[in-house]
Here is the input.
Amino acid sequence: MRRRFFNKIGGGGLPTDDFMVFDKSVSDPANITISEDNDFLYRLLTSGFYRVLCKSAMGGGEVFVCGLKYNNSNLYFDGSPADLTGQEGDVMVLFLEFWYKWYKVDDNRFLYHFADHDIDGTYIHVPQSLVGAYKGYVSSNRLYSWSDVTPTTNVSLSDFRSYAKARGTGFQVIDFQQHCVIAMMLYAKYKTRNLQGVLGPGGATCDPATTTGSSNATGGADTENEYSKYVCGLGLEGVFGGICEWVEGVEINNRVWKITDPDGSTRNVNAGTVSGWIKNIAAENGPFFDVVPTQVGGSNLKYYSDHYYQASDNSLVLARSYSNSNEYGGVAYTGADKYASSQDLAYGSRLAFRGTISELNPEQFKMLPVL
Here is the structure.
């Protein structure tokens, strides 16, 4: 079966399982197919992203987490009640570790292969990390991920960075790799780039900002055709829409993106020079999951179904998600026309963590103090 299916998409030397294929010649957003044998990819999509409560360890650089019930975040995984308002830590989504590699199939098609290890020494590493389940909230100059609060807006990326770092070593705002992983995982899960057409456009707003926690009773489940509340995907409430999210790890100079990866390495990617509906992104030519718009000419129902804004200035930064809830802003939405010092009621961010993550059972976790 693997050989027969594999011959349909290409030839020798390509993976035979755990991959997704994109056809660039197809304008329909549903241009994605998945391998018939996808044991690891299936496990990654169904259990590789889940909600936890998170507490910092003394000394920084390490956190302790405890899983929440999949279909009800108000409970720990053992069914005991959980407090999501900050009394028992931050509500985060755990991103499990994996590796991936880009392959060219033919002039129109490319694929990404997923694995639980670096198969041949050339696979790109996505380390385990944490991302806030909610839009970020600032209290006493520190950034949090709490339920039942009004997300913080009208704060610059520079200030959000300092508020995240004030939480301790390893804390940061959500970064470029994490946002690209969100996009690619949802593309693979639903086999379409028009995620507003699946998850819904949502109904969250930025002014006033919609209160966090609308997804608590449904937990990590994705929304379906949501038009009133935050859109959810991969356990992330407001995975797009509601509030634009400042993103760490990108500096933009005259449309050249300097991207910094979690290992500290950097690379430059040339982005498109015209604003509009996204038609192509850098990830189509590999080797990275670079959701960097390179060409426009689509629409809300073609190609990536999301919008790109750009400027020719230097020292610009990146925003994802989009403000309010409409067809412009899905997981590929790109705002590349603001400065790190810019402030806007439509802009907030999201807490994240990179460092040592230790999982505990509810009894052990509840005994730890909230630092």
The chain is about 15% helix and 35% strand. The two ends are 54 Å apart (CA to CA). The CA atoms of residues 19 and 37 lie 9 Å apart. The first strand starts at residue 19 and ends at 23.
